[in-house]
Amino acid sequence: MKSLMMDDFPLTLSPLLVRAERLFPRVTVASRRPDRAVQYTDYGSIMIRARTLTAALLEEGIRRGDRVATLMWNHSSHLEAYFGVPAAGAVLHTINLRLPPDHLAYVINHARDRWILVDDVLLPTLEKVRDRIHVERVIVVPFSGQPVPTGSEDYEQLLGRHRPTDALPEIGEKEAAGLCYTSGTTGLPKGVVYSHRSIVLHTLATAFSLGLGQGDSFLVVVPMFHVNAWGFPFTMAMLGARQVLPGPHLDAESVLDLLEREKVTMAAGVPAVWFGVLEALEKEPSRWKLDPRLRMVVGGAAMPESMVRRFAKLGIGPIHGYGLTETSPIMTLGIPKESMKSWDLERRIAVLSRQGIPLPYVELRVQDWDGVVLPWDGQSVGELQVRGPWIARDYLENPESADKWTDDGWFRTGDVANIDPEGYVQIVDRIKDLVKSGGEWISSVAIENSLVGHPAVREAAVVARPDPKWGERPLAFVVPKEGTHVTAEELRDLLAGQYPKWWLPDEIRLVPSLPKTSTGKLSKRTLREMLASESKASTDTSVEAPIRTNVQ
Amino acid sequence: MKSLMMDDFPLTLSPLLVRAERLFPRVTVASRRPDRAVQYTDYGSIMIRARTLTAALLEEGIRRGDRVATLMWNHSSHLEAYFGVPAAGAVLHTINLRLPPDHLAYVINHARDRWILVDDVLLPTLEKVRDRIHVERVIVVPFSGQPVPTGSEDYEQLLGRHRPTDALPEIGEKEAAGLCYTSGTTGLPKGVVYSHRSIVLHTLATAFSLGLGQGDSFLVVVPMFHVNAWGFPFTMAMLGARQVLPGPHLDAESVLDLLEREKVTMAAGVPAVWFGVLEALEKEPSRWKLDPRLRMVVGGAAMPESMVRRFAKLGIGPIHGYGLTETSPIMTLGIPKESMKSWDLERRIAVLSRQGIPLPYVELRVQDWDGVVLPWDGQSVGELQVRGPWIARDYLENPESADKWTDDGWFRTGDVANIDPEGYVQIVDRIKDLVKSGGEWISSVAIENSLVGHPAVREAAVVARPDPKWGERPLAFVVPKEGTHVTAEELRDLLAGQYPKWWLPDEIRLVPSLPKTSTGKLSKRTLREMLASESKASTDTSVEAPIRTNVQ
Questions:
Q1: Which chain B residue lies closest to A5 (C-alpha atoms)?
Q2: A441 catalytic per annotation
Q3: Among B121, B203, B411, B497, which residue is least crowded by beta carbons within 10 Å?
Q4: Three-class SS of residue A319?
Q5: In sequence order, which residues have a C-beta less than 8 Å from that of residue A134 and are 6 or more positions away?
Q6: Tens-digit pLDDT profile for residues B198-213
Q7: What share of chain A is helix, strand, coil (3-state, %, to 5)?
Q8: Which residues of chain B neighbour A337 with C-beta distances below 8 Å?
Q9: Could you give the CA distance from residue A457 to residue A255 in angstroms, rounded to a whole number?
Q10: Which DSSP category does A506 fall into?
Q11: The Cα angle at residue B31 between residues B26 and B32, in degrees rounded to 5
Q12: Nearest Cα to A444, choosing from A453, A457, A431?
């Protein structure tokens, strides 16, 4: 028996564009500009401009599947590109503006971007690689409010030359809509190509899994170049809900200011941002009046238990989101089940500190090193593998990465995890961050979480140091909080109460900051490289301020 | 550029079965049995039994695409079939148990049902057609708790012979999963074949559009044989939320009793049910303690403004759901926009009385009789047409219905509607229920809504009477509320204040009840046939109690 439904009706982004414009034209999108002014527009204006961008692309030679890149902060013109580029049948390549120049040039050339839309304030970033990249047009968005530099092409003039298209082209749901590169913590960045279908299904599933609705006001702290800002700009446009886009101002005070003035009910960002927000709130608890409904998705890196606890004290519920560039990104959300609402605080915090349960249609399994699938017992630890309609099945032109998929087609996350009987995933570590001492595994993440649980510790990183006797031994780097005092001995005693003796780091170094990657994540690779060179220089154990940070 | 996502990962119902069992095994499903006892089970047990049913079907000869029918009330075993039958690659045909015998035999034979699962209490219904239908096996579900009659096959014994399958078969998302027949208000019932994909997408979209979540307790008053109970059994299983299934007890007191004892937060049913509930609540406002979050989807027929108003007085928010068997069913939901929350009560009631805004991916247009697409101005009235991933593109083996689709592939709803600038649809009438008087259209629904706004009117129906001078003229049938008194003159005066003179019915007849179809909808066909025969009998204008009702 054949289905008699319109099963060929494609799941593309274009109906969401049309929907936001027709049903929610006066819903606000707020953007903070470089001069800190907050500018308001609405879905009506944004989507008319998106359709104008679609017309400009089609009428000025962009063809089906061509890449159009953005090098932009979070603001309303970036949202225009989110809808206008895929609606033209082109592929939106959102470039990480914090990439080092080599990587920046690499991804632009590897993606074969034809056009780049760039914020005027980010022109200096692009200038560094301008002579190394092969793009046809660089179109400057006057984000600062200043006239675009002479000799540059003006985004507003491009739009001015065209009328919004009334007939969006028909696109198949499996055509490419977006392209993001992994941050390349190991080796060169790898490209992940999203389909219209994968983005739409991710959008539908996150909307109800997070209980989002038209009444929400959503602060998108996570950059729009970071896996489509976890899909939230699409989700909120579909729901017809307010979006607040912070531009380049991601410091704690700026974030808190937006949370208050835009009556934000939901936000999304990496732990580093929320650490800053927490510290500011704890310092001046009554300075900001936050919406009582405020909750936030914390992702991009593990949120330590102490963070859950500190937010809970402030009456704010953080939600772990776990995902990767290859997974669109959301695989799991740390939402407590209804049955857990009656649990005592400690039990609830333990659950909220895990990475959460899978979204519908995300299938997870944990495999041990021999390929045996492990039970959901909260104990058995192995590699987390995943499949589903918004999971990548390959990288863009990168055949040497074929081993990232199992023979039966599951994506290897590279994360070490267990799943408890309730279905909550816990990421124990990245496979490559495990410390193998005397043939046994030590979880660097576990020790880090314990260290940041100390009131005087701001950040911590545990990495393996090559060891002639044990193979590897853990070493901890700790950044103390400003204005506090703590010693390595104190921290060692703290860990000794929680872990077997052979887990304790051989050394705990107090440092002023930790190295970060272009997406603001801790760069353990930098630390490991440093330790490797120390080991080579054998007797020399002192380091001259080798650790810098490039986090915002 | 090609998408590199797992775009072939199929959207079938099987992952929802597995998910409910693994993630929400202890969430309750309550079912009321024929003896009124409420029985509790949970998703864990139901889904294990569903997988056992899957095994039984596969191991006893049901093949891909074969039809397995249910003739069942709303209870947990029906939910097992909802998941267990499609998971086997078979097609779940949910039969309307109120069909007259001719139609019942017709749909079973037309669908070529191989097996029928039937509630023991519904065996007498099946017996009436047993010698006219060609099914291989009739399997009796001991819903009453009594042993199944000797000589009948026992559903529990069938399950008892099999082990739950651990390897659900791989199914394509465009394979058939479900089959429902239209109620056949005109002519024979027509079959609509749902795909896995269409059901899944409908499930995802309704979940967030109604703001449903794991914390909800959902009373499914709408029968599970009525367009998959509007998809809610699937939706709530996906969310891991409680379901309350009322069995055969659909009277107002039984419904109110369940609303109270199961702390229901969301319910779904036809207006007739909610009319009864309203009357009972108004009579004894403090008798039932309802959850303050309680809201309900009202569908299957238009909810008159007076009903919205009366519910609002009780602090309960009814939500219009509009759809048809051919549309899975939900096309629009009458959810107020965020911006409308500040509107005064009258304006909000006016919006809530419309049929609502379309779900994402439901595309609507209104065409006039010349095929011109009309603007969303709240005035222009024409035929409502729809397309989208959960809209039918054909009927099952029914070539004479090809005119239900436009040449460019939109489904003709047969409803006359306008869409206002906010995107809210208002159904003015069924095309066939419009009264054409002197070349101008009169809306029967508008007049009916005004009539039921009178405090003494329980139900009203306006139909066309053939008229030698005007072609057609409206005639109204009115059922007064018990214990009230109203005259035709009073009602005529009420209408005269609201409509032009030529709209006023030539006659207003007070009758004890109105004829209903097998799904409990008003049967205007019966009324029209009666009037036609009256017209033929020219001088004879009296009718001897021709109006019966078969509504529950």
A1: B392
A2: yes
A3: B497
A4: strand
A5: A108, A109, A112
A6: 999 999 999 999 999 9
A7: 35, 25, 40
A8: 23-24, 214, 240
A9: 22
A10: S
A11: 150
A12: A431
Find how far residue B342's CA is from the centre of its chain: 32
3-state secondary structure of B268: strand
User: Hey, what are B84's tokens?
Assistant: 């267990």
- Reply yes or no on whether A182 is catalytic: yes
- The residue behind tokens 């816990």 is A426
Query: Is the preceding omega at residue A329 within 30 degrees of 0, hence cis?
Result: yes
Query: Two tokens at B66?
Result: 């074969």
| Residue B15 distance to chain A (closest CA, Å) | 6
DSSP run (H or E) holding A109: helix A101-111
Q: Could you tell me the two tokens for B424? A: 């809210």
Q: Do B520 and B185 touch, CB atoms closer than 8 A?
A: no
Partners of residue B390 in chain A, C-beta under 8 Å: 5-6
Tokens linked to A4: 């008699």
Give A 359-378 residues with CB within 8 A of chain B.
360-361, 363, 376
One-letter amino acid for residue A83 of the chain: F
Interface contact B328-A24, CB threshold 8 A: no
For chain B, say whether A394 makes contact (Cβ under 8 Å): yes
DSSP secondary structure, B22-76, as one string: HH-TT-EEEEE-TTS-EEEEEHHHHHHHHHHHHHHHHHTT--TT-EEEEE--SSH
Beta-strand ranges (E) seen in B77-201 are 91-94, 113-119, 137-141, 153-154, 176-181, 191-195
**Cis peptide bond N-terminal to B248, omega within 30:** no
Alpha-carbon distance A446 to nearest alpha carbon in chain B (angstroms): 26
Instruction: Convert the pLDDT of each residue in A284-331 to its tens digit.
Output: 999 999 999 999 999 988 888 999 999 989 989 899 999 999 999 999
| Cβ atoms of B330 and B253 closer than 8 Å | no
Amino acid identity at B360? P
Which residue out of A12, A182, A203, A325 is catalytically annotated? A182
Phi-psi region of B211 (alpha: psi -120 to 50; beta: other; left: phi over 0): left
Full set of structural domains in chain A with CATH: 434-536 (3.30.300.30)
Q: Any chain B CB within 8 A of the CB of A438?
A: no
Q: Which residues of B touch A22 (CB under 8 A)?
A: 376, 423
pTM for this predicted structure: 0.90
CA distance B421 to chain A (A): 8
ipTM above 0.85, yes or no: yes
Q: Is residue A448 within 8 angstroms of chain B, CB to CB?
A: no
Beta carbons of A5 and B337 less than 8 Å apart: no
Average pLDDT, chain B: 93
Give yes or no for a contact between A73 and A120, defined as CB atoms under 8 angstroms apart.
no
B350: region left, alpha or beta (phi > 0 left; psi from -120 to 50 alpha): alpha
A205, A337, A422 ranked by CB distance to B204: nearest: A205
Q: CA nearest B424 in A: which residue? A: A23
From chain B, pick out residues whose CB is under 8 angstroms from the CB of A295. none
d(CA A97, CA A71): 6
Distance CA B395, CA B184 (A): 13
Helices and strands, number each (H, E), in chain A: 15, 25
**Closest to A364 (Cα-Cα) out of A407, A301, A423, A431:** A423
pLDDT band of residue A542 (cuts 50, 70, 90) is: very low
- Which residues 245-304 of chain A have a CB within 8 Å of chain B? none
Strand partners for B330? B323
Mark yes or no for CB contact A7/B394 under 8 Å.
no
- Interface contacts A/B by beta carbons within 8 Å: 192
Residue A367 clears pLDDT 70, i.e. is over it: yes
Residue B216 Cα distances to B212, B261, B266, angstroms = 7, 14, 7
- How many CB atoms are located within 10 Å of the residue B438 CB? 12
How far is B361 from chain A, CA to nearest CA, in Å? 6
